[in-house]
Amino acid sequence: MHEPPFRDPVVPLPDRIDDLMRRLTLAEKLGLLHQYQAPVERLGVGAFRTGTEALHGLAWLGPATVFPQAVGLASTWDLDLVRRVGEATGDEVLAFHHKDPVGAGLNVWAPVVNPLRDPRWGRNEEGYSEDPWLTGVMAAAYARGLRGSAPETFKTAPTLKHFLAYNNETDRCTTSSNLPPRVLREYELPAFRPAIEQGVAVAVMPSYNLVNGRPAHLSPLIEQVLRVWAPGDLLVVSDAYAPGNLTGLQGYHDTLPEAYAHAVKAGLDSFTQDDDRAEATLGHLRDALAQGLLGEADVDRAVQHALSVRFRLGEFDPATPYDDITDSVVNCPEHQQLAREAARRSFVLLKNDGLLPLSGEVTRIAVLGQLGDTLMEDWYSGTLPYAVTARAGLGERCETVFCEAVDRVTLTSDAGPVAADPAGGPLSVGVETGEFDLFDWGGGAYALRAVTTGRFVSVDGSADGAPLVNDQPGPNGWEVRQTFRMEERPRGTLALRHISTGCYVGAGEDGVLRLVDDADQAVWLAMDVVRSGTEQAAELAAAADVAVVVAGDHPLVNGRETEDRMTLALASAQDAVVQAARKANPRTVMVLSSGYPLTWSDDEVPAVLWSAHGGQEYGHALAEVLFGDADPEGRLTQTWYRSEQELPDLLDYDIIASDATYLYFRGVPLHPFGHGLSYTTFDYDDLRVRVDGDVLRAEATVTNAGARPGVEVVQFYTHQQRSRVKQPLRRLRGFEKVRLEPGESRTVTLTLPVPELAFWDVTRGRYVVESAPHQLMVGRSATDVRLSARFEIDGETIPPQPGPLRAASHDEYDAITFVDETRADGDAVRSGAEGAWILFRQVDLTGAATCVATAGSTEGGMLTLRRGDPLYGQVLAAFPVPRTDRYTYHPIASPLAAADGVHDLYVVFENDGVTLAGLDFGAGA
């Protein structure tokens, strides 16, 4: 029997897709627009599911190799290593897929390419860097590994998350990210481009938030930018339950058929809604077709995108290059070694006064701290097949002594002491005294572990009356029920407030501790320390050759998906342990394990080593770095600020105006972007720079000037010294990682196409390379510059702008918000306060006698056009804005005062709530 063309791999891909689509009914096509794509049994087309999590190893499906968190992988500054981790992860996805084709689908939701604009973001550990270019090349490397090496067939289909401008968990479904055009084009979009343009990522997931007032799932940029970049079809999958937000939390549309039709037309191809229950979604799409809101051509376009990915995965081929992958690859010795290598290369030496590397004379180490003998799984990690902790890894090298360095406490109410049920059941107030170990995870989040059971206190339920039990291995789950805040009460007592529910802990008539809604019903507890964690740590530190304090965050507690951080400070109890250990033994190393930058109070600790949560081989890797078997290779991919007070508001996405990230930050950070020490020293010399046509070429010589082999990450930055606009203080343009023996030199090079020096010109809506002097900087970090040289670029001079002027494409602003011009497309601006303004620089008014403002206001209002100054500048025109509905604009004409020539113009919003789409100028009669 002849196979149909869609099953023939010799037939060109577009023809195969067309053949299958012609065979599908409209109902069958609709069935392909949900996360759980329905099978078409009459054609032998199987079920298909999008969305296998694979951020730093296969997640959620059982034990699999766990690699360092994404921010840790990026800290290696090793693209080949990141690719190999992606390749190993793809192999393990395939192994699970061959056993469960639908449960372990081949559309993987990784990597995350949101630039790490603000370290308080709860999902910081999921991204790569605050630099968009570095994020982009790291994401492309990981996606290339996931995609596989076969030229025609994909191993897995990587999906970039989350489009667009998503860096806050606080009210993430209802907040709108303010993105001026330059921030959009120069910061947010570039992170997505490499993996899409190179064809190694074939899918994108929009984010939960709104962008300039429009839900990201409805962004016109999906079609206007992302699909323009893609060399083939690009699948767009929704985030979980985000389609329902369009009429729910966001209230952007009145009905789901209307919302879903808009989403499909905007470019959404797959609805992740209602888990595996697709019928409601398909019903709304059928209603949209019946109401004429959606056409079959719209459905066909989305189905083509969905099928294209399945074809490229080889689903309809007789065989693929990956059919022989079995579950023998899962946590195989090669992947274990790769996990160890990745963890080792990710360590960043932040400070070293000569204590490290440890010598062979060290025979006894005190391993201290809450993270000293445990490894953490984050929300998107796999299940650890085994765990080499710091204590275990160091214990293979020498004798170790250990304590968690947490306080052991008792809790007592007026009715008696609190005790834990030895069987793991409820906590109760009675005559028996129970002891608890108190864990401080920072940000005011504490966990209690019952000594009698070794299990953590949790809440069995989520409503008023739910009892406190002690049956959990630690903080865990989507809704973490094992953390509490402590609120002061009179006479030195405290009340416990359950973080997940916001309820307080009270005592029922039966003496059982239960949640209560009313703070006045909270039981007052006296907390007494039975054993001091800091004293225990100091005692062990004093008796050891070296103390290693392992401190940091819990990935499910102090910041994670759905929860941002308010502080960067290391948990106060952990901070105190570091100080106590260092005072007891000056040979103390602070080892930080966290998914985000931290601050601490002990400036005298001689050595500080950081890594993200490092996966299953963390302890082995740590030992290799501490004892100098390997040079610390990691470099920071984020600025480490001295305090969260140096950061703008969490919801302020305009990094240019707020001087945010290493690109614009003018302060002196705790540790700069790109920072990381070595156990040797490096000399830089002989920088040579030339512009060769459309290419900037630079080279320098780097020499290992120390007595040990070492690894250096040579970083190239540029700064445009003169411009029409505010330019970054420095921007990473390339790097080279070199391994040098003592005395060895190497020439490092940068080859940069001159068009990459462009910025977004708001006056003409395109990228432009200005004629200007630039500085090239070479060094060890963004601020540790060893060599620099000046070079000139012969580009353009931006001319005055004659109009029309798009309101969103202004040069500066105050007290305005970017909003959606229409529900489908365009940006406008709205005033947020009386006296708000936007500035257009160098507007050519030659011959202009009238001005037309396209504006609207739900309350009515007034705009004025001023020259030179928003308060005292000459009023050139005034525009009374009539009351309209939200998306109705009126052209409001005004005579223009005599102002021939080129001027800086301010549009001043005399009251709030006025929306402006644009200005245009006309000549006199």
UniProtKB/TrEMBL annotation:
Asked if Hydrolase is a keyword of the record, the answer is yes
**Keyword terms:** Hydrolase, Signal
Domain Fibronectin type III-like: from-to ranges: 712-782
Can the keyword Signal be found in this entry's annotation? yes
Pfam families, per database record: CBM_6, Fn3-like, Glyco_hydro_3, Glyco_hydro_3_C
Q: Which residues form the Cellulose binding type IV domain?
A: 799-923
Biological process (GO) annotations held by this record are: arabinan catabolic process; xylan catabolic process
**InterPro entries, A to Z:** Actin-crosslinking (IPR008999), BXL (IPR044993), CBM6 (IPR005084), Cellulose-bd_IV (IPR006584), Fn3-like (IPR026891), Galactose-bd-like_sf (IPR008979), GH (IPR017853), Glyco_hydro_3_C (IPR002772)
Molecular function via GO = alpha-L-arabinofuranosidase activity; beta-glucosidase activity; carbohydrate binding; xylan 1,4-beta-xylosidase activity
Query: What does this protein do, in the record's words?
Result: Catalyzes the hydrolysis of a non-reducing terminal alpha-L-arabinopyranosidic linkage in ginsenoside Rb2 (alpha-L-arabinopyranosyl-(1->6)-alpha-D-glucopyranosyl) to release alpha-D-glucopyranosyl (Rd). It is not able to hydrolyze alpha-L-arabinofuranosyl-(1->6)-alpha-D-glucopyranosyl (Rc).
Q: Which family does it belong to?
A: Belongs to the glycosyl hydrolase 3 family.
Name listed for the protein in its UniProt record: Exo-alpha-(1->6)-L-arabinopyranosidase
